[in-house]
Write a structure and sequence with these properties.
The complex is a heterodimer.
Chain A: E1 2-3, E2 6-14, E3 19-22, H1 25-37, E4 46-51, H2 58-71, E5 77-82, E6 85-90, E7 93-102, H3 108-119, E8 132-139, E9 142-150, H4 157-171, H5 183-189, H6 195-210, E10 230-237, H7 238-251, H8 255-271, E11 275-282, E12 299-306, H9 312-328, H10 334-348, E13 356-360, E14 387-393, E15 401-405, E16 412-419, H11 425-442
Parallel strand pairs in A: 7-8, 11-13, 13-15
Antiparallel strand pairs in A: 1-2, 2-7, 3-6, 4-9, 5-6, 8-9, 10-14, 10-16, 11-12, 15-16
Chain B: H1 3-19, H2 26-31, H3 36-39, H4 43-57, H5 73-83
Helix pairs in contact in B: 1-4, 1-5
Classes of the chains: A alpha+beta, B mainly alpha.
Domain Carrier (chain B): 3-84
Protein name (chain B): Carrier domain-containing protein
Organism (chain B): Nonomuraea glycinis
């Protein structure tokens, strides 16, 4: 059988159970995001590649894929709107069609990455589609890599990391037990105390911020945007990563806190404000049972950072404390949160715009393959090797400011999606370089903030 | 140290060890030679610890102010003992 000229195979799976239930908080958040984004929701899709380790034949790879689907309910789940609200439906059995693509002259992993990106550009019809698409890249007739597009309703970055580790085990011939904790279990738990109490506390925290936060992210009015309006400016800097590591050690806080502090500082500077307000994308796997759960769990925290008016060391400590508050209050029922935000909107004339984000995608919060730096090595000299670039643009992605720490293990990858009606690409580039400069200078001097 | 305070520290040290996935031992925590963050207690583990303390002791832990009481098990136990004083709002 062929599709677009390529062979296809069908993976038939049968899970331990099927069922229907309410959405988890993580799914509710993503469900709303998917619908708010409309045609641009493919931005939320997650391209992913799993290498075929060892010399496995196609039958072994398809068998491993079957087990992967059977063991993870999230990968067998569709989503539907019902009169009682959206639900998740776990399929007890089903089929996944997998295309076989010969790599040709291309390296197999590169071909898989390209295919994963291409497959991710198509929106999922969540009511009917399994939340993943898969193609197997072959070379010389052997499977070399799997290209995936996952719906963000099924996975977050931690889930993808779990799938990678389990895939490796499956190909080694290890048994993979069924998920000990599933989204259906989690959704039930979230309807009980103390979860409801935590949600109520988080909503109270957000309310206290939203009652007085400026209604706009930027004080200046929008100008003439570029076309496309939303662009992503990226930076790769070993100096950024090296400096973040040294400062984190010096101040016994995480590199994430150091980077949050620096990004919040440059945002506040652009605005001429003393307070930075940003949403933090948070993995949110607070219940230990969720740590090994393949699902979308992440929710956003709300960071409020008042720059202390002294130096960056104090700012970083304040950011660390504020980030803890944000993480703690990132655990809530999105329905309750939305009701509160709408109420604030009615009272203040409109909902405050919270479209400034920070996301650290590094799983372990480190750069495991960073080049070895000699103790005391001058990192300022390394900044000459930093490069910046403009990457993707999504016409429908409506972020004002979105900082992302990338997953590159050997360099500090920091990108910034901007709304060019408010910030120019040159300002965005200066903000990224400003983060680097703030960290590198703080190694040798007390840098005034703001 | 009273027997009650020692017992509280032990309970907290066991909680921390359990939440850190074996990265930090209860003995290291009780030794008090290094702060919890220096021992490697991550932000996520700290939030989990606060959740666990609230669930186990029925108190409401405030993270919005000074966090110095979260640096050592001894200071954390003293802070918790204060929260557990009868009549104090929880």
């Amino acid at each position: 059988m062929t599709v677009s000229g390529n062979d296809v195979r069908t993976v038939t799976f049968g899970g331990q159970r099927d069922g229907e239930g309410t959405l988890t908080w993580g799914q509710r958040l993503m469900w709303r995001a998917v619908h708010l984004m409309g045609d641009s929701q493919s931005f939320l899709n997650c391209p992913w590649v799993l290498p075929v380790y060892g010399r496995r034949d196609l039958a072994a790879v398809l068998e491993a894929l079957r087990v992967l689907l059977e063991r993870h309910e999230s990968l067998r789940t569709t989503f539907a709107d019902t009169p009682d609200g959206p639900v998740q439906r776990v399929a007890g059995r089903g089929e996944l069609t997998v295309e076989l693509v010969e790599a040709g002259q291309e390296r197999a992993l590169a071909a898989a990455e390209r295919l994963a990106g291409e497959m991710s550009r198509t929106v999922f019809a969540h009511e009917h589609d399994l939340p993943l698409r898969c193609a197997i890249v072959t070379a010389d007739g052997r499977p070399k890599a799997l290209a995936f597009a996952f719906s963000h309703l099924a996975v977050d970055f931690q889930a993808l990391g779990l799938l990678s580790a389990r895939w490796r085990g499956l190909l080694r011939g290890e048994d993979l037990p069924a998920d000990a904790w599933t989204p259906m279990d989690q959704a039930e738990l979230e309807r009980t105390e103390p979860y409801l109490a935590r949600s109520a506390r988080s909503v109270r925290h957000w309310r206290s911020v939203l009652e007085e936060v400026p209604l706009e992210v930027f004080d200046h009015p929008p100008g003439e945007p570029e076309d496309p309006r939303f662009i992503e400016v990226g930076m790769e800097s070993v100096a950024l990563a090296g400096a973040a590591v040294r400062l984190a050690e010096r101040w016994t806080i995480s590199t994430t806190s150091v980077l949050i502090a620096a990004c919040a500082t440059v945002l506040a500077r652009v605005n001429g404000r003393r307070r930075a307000v940003m949403q933090l994308v948070h993995s949110n796997r607070r219940d230990p049972r969720t740590e090994s759960m393949v699902a979308t769990v992440g929710q956003d925290g709300l960071l409020v950072l008042d720059l202390p008016g002294t130096d960056f060391a104090d700012t970083a400590q304040a950011a660390h404390r504020s980030a803890l508050m944000a993480y703690r209050n990132a655990h809530y029922d999105p329905y309750a949160m939305q009701a509160m935000r709408e109420e604030i909107g009615r009272r203040r004339g409109r909902e405050p715009d919270l479209d400034a984000f920070f996301n650290d995608r590094r799983g372990g919060g480190s750069w495991p393959s960073l080049p070895r730096l000699a103790p005391g090595e001058d990192l300022a000299a390394l900044t000459g090797k930093t490069h910046t670039y403009v990457t993707n643009a999504w016409p429908g992605v409506r972020f004002k400011v979105f900082f992302t720490v990338g997953t590159a293990p050997d360099t500090g990858q920091l990108s910034l999606i901007i709304d060019t009606a408010y910030l120019s690409r040159e300002t965005a580039r200066e903000m990224l370089l400003g983060v680097e400069s703030l960290l590198v200078r703080s190694l040798t001097e007390a840098v005034a903030c703001p | 140290m009273t027997a009650g305070a020692a017992e509280l520290e032990r309970k907290l040290a066991d909680m921390i060890a359990g939440l850190s996935d074996g990265e930090i031992s209860a003995e290291e925590v009780l030794a008090g030679g290094h702060s919890l963050s220096a021992l490697g207690l991550s932000s996520l583990a700290l939030i989990r610890l606060v959740d666990a303390i609230e669930d186990a002791f029925g108190v409401d832990v405030d993270l919005s102010g000074d966090l110095s009481s979260f640096e050592y098990v001894s200071t954390l136990a003293a802070h918790l003992a204060d929260l557990l004083v009868p009549g104090r709002p929880r």
